[in-house]
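Private note to self, pasted from the team thread so I don't lose it. Backbone tokens:
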């Protein structure tokens, strides 16, 4: 990735190297604040404004993507694998969903509303399987408790 940046005439500064390294090492999506914490631990002289500028520039260059995964701040990840997001509103788990899942939705929205969606930029909110099962179990437990009282 750094070689690609250089070959296209872009600067590869220490802060960019560290930022890209942070995203490579990440186990998921990171907010700008989480990236800043990590980078400032490694290099305390990197200013928050530099991190935001680099995120913006790397996104413009197609190296980094940002997504809105619910109600919190935007999150960032490398643009190496395009995907959408499914986020559980109860426990917050984020599932990276392949683009094919959104293909039919994109066709319908384009046909019926003449609008092109960007499924990488937002998350589809709902409830994961674990939380669905927990809700069913709680409902059954409540029914059993109510039945034992009558």
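Design output:
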């Amino acid at each position: 990735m750094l070689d690609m940046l250089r070959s296209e005439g872009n600067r590869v500064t220490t802060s960019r190297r560290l930022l890209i390294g942070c995203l490579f090492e990440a186990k998921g999506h990171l907010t700008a604040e989480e990236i800043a914490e990590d980078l400032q631990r490694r290099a305390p002289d990197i200013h928050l404004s530099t991190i935001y500028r680099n995120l913006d520039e790397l996104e413009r260059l197609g190296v980094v993507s940002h997504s809105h995964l619910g109600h919190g701040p935007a999150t960032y990840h490398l643009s190496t694998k395009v995907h959408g997001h499914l986020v559980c509103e109860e426990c917050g788990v984020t599932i990276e969903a392949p683009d094919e899942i959104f293909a039919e939705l994109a066709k319908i929205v384009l046909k019926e509303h003449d609008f092109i969606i960007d499924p990488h930029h937002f998350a589809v909110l709902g409830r994961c399987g674990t939380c669905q099962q927990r809700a069913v179990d709680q409902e059954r437990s409540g029914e059993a408790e109510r039945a034992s009282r009558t």
